[in-house]
Amino acid sequence: MSSYQKELEKYRDIDEDEILRTLSPEELEQLDCELQEMDPEVGAPAQGTRSSLQAFGKGEGPWAAKTRAAYRAWSPKGAREKVSVDALGTPGGTPDQRSGLTCSPKLIPKNMLLPAGLRQRDQTKKSPTGPLDRDALLQYLEQQALEVKERDDLVPFTGEKKGKPYIQPKREIPVQEQITLEPELEEALANATDAEMCDIAAILGMYTLMSNKQYYDAICSGEICNTEGISSVVQPDKYKPVPDEPPNPTNIEEILKSVRNNDKELEEVNLNNIQDIPIPMLTELCEAMKTNTYVRSFSLVATRSGDPIANAVADMLRENRSLRSLNIESNFISSTGLMAVLKAVRENATLTELRVDNQRQWPGDAVEMEMATVLEQCPSIVRFGYHFTQQGPRARAAQAMTRNNELRRQQKKR
């Protein structure tokens, strides 16, 4: 048996009810204050102890009081465990003893993180007048605040003006000298129309008297351009409407048939802006391009192509050895599809132009780094269409493109 158990055996037969009945009100108050110092957090009660401690004065709670008395008898000061004060409940005994257990409200607990209402016992002696209605209380407080009259000014305005009022000094208007012109000029100016006066003002550089259009028309042309005068309303220029571009007239079925037959006359496949091409047909076209030896340019701009088409294009690049230009801009290709195309470009030594910009979503830093690596490892690519967002891949790509073009120039010289 340990020393703790030996010490605890001495206090198992203590009659705690008898001890509490013999305590004076001052001793009961001191006991309650010491318990509150041990645990200032007045919150959730200990499990299963409230009901047993509410009647410890009647002999119904032998466990809590006996344990506290035994524990306080052998435990040194400062090493006591914290016991919840709220677990004490409402003590029994006489009313004087119950009132004596109330601790002083000025007691400052050790735990200062609790709200002020939980640091001390409830001191409200009035009974509630009704249930709490928060909305009604807020409405009442707002109404009371609106009914409070604003206080009057302590120093009312008497209407007295201090200081001298500002009076603008009078300035003498300079007398302009009358300019006399030759009789012929005076007669010409007197009989000039507003349009002629506008052109004369433009020639003399008085551009503030007219609009920019009137000024430049009078300077550039040798005739009278303004026929309405200086104060006329400026009319906007009528520009010719620019018609929309006609739809792509390419017949996809004929193109697919020509690619399969390896037609010599077909050197460019342009399917730009055709947004209703079925995915199986585009896949068949890429399959046919694997064995074609005459098509030099393949463009799929704004065709709503996604990753399946990008994977088909990647498979085509691994086998085709005649394609020079590939354009898949403005599509719905993700970073996965772009990575597949870039890996296939490494295995193709004939491609010289690649454009992959303006996809639906940004491919990411990893794809941009892969683009720069592909340009460094593929000297055949001399044109690359993509707007880099990171400085590192952009600088590497620019340096690689400069090197590739220089190699191409040296090969042409030879």
From TrEMBL:
A single GO BP: myofibril assembly
Record flagged with keyword Cytoplasm: yes
Keyword Cytoplasm: yes
Any one GO molecular-function label of the UniProt entry: actin binding
Gene3D superfamilies, A to Z: Ribonuclease Inhibitor (3.80.10.10)
Signal peptide coordinates: none
Subcellular location: Cytoplasm, Cytoskeleton
Record keywords, A-Z: Actin-binding, Cytoplasm, Cytoskeleton
Domain of life: Eukaryota
Single GO cellular component term: striated muscle thin filament
Annotated region (Disordered), positions in chain: 38-60, 80-106
Primary location group: cytoplasm
Family stated for the protein in its record: Belongs to the tropomodulin family.
Name the record gives this protein: Tropomodulin-4 isoform X1
Annotated source species: Ursus maritimus (Polar bear)
